[in-house]
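>> received
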Amino acid sequence: MRFPVIPLLILAMPAVEIAVLIAVGSEIGVLATLGLLFASAVLGVVLVRIQGFSTVQRIRTELDRGGSPGRDLVHGMMILVAGVLLIIPGFVSDAIGLLLFLPPVRDLGWRLLKSRIKVATVQTGSGYRRAREDVVDLDEDDYHDLDNDPQRRPPFDPRLPPR
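>> returned
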């Protein structure tokens, strides 16, 4: 049986954060600790705003070229997670959040996630195209629901469960 590591880390995180806060507070004082926590939250908001806008711009540029914005989408999500980690009070989450703002760390995350993610774009009035040829877009007229179409419904079979 495989041991679930992520739920254990999520449960242990508040205890680790409290222990680090107590250690830092006893060394530099309560007001300085609260000031650092407030400064990290403000820094998180500012960094998400700055890097988030540039990531959205890169995604738009990639879509306009007809390419796949997968890498930039993953980077954007990591920036968002980094900002949330900086806003959450605690120095351990702040350290992880600051690491996620570094592009080499995000590139490592992209390399680990790349094989599990498929990005498909849809053609819209603004000119975005499909990024992959194996994605099929259908209009409402191109398909219909056989279960709710009385003309195409199979005959009643008492052995089958009711719909």
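>> The chain has one domain: 5-135.
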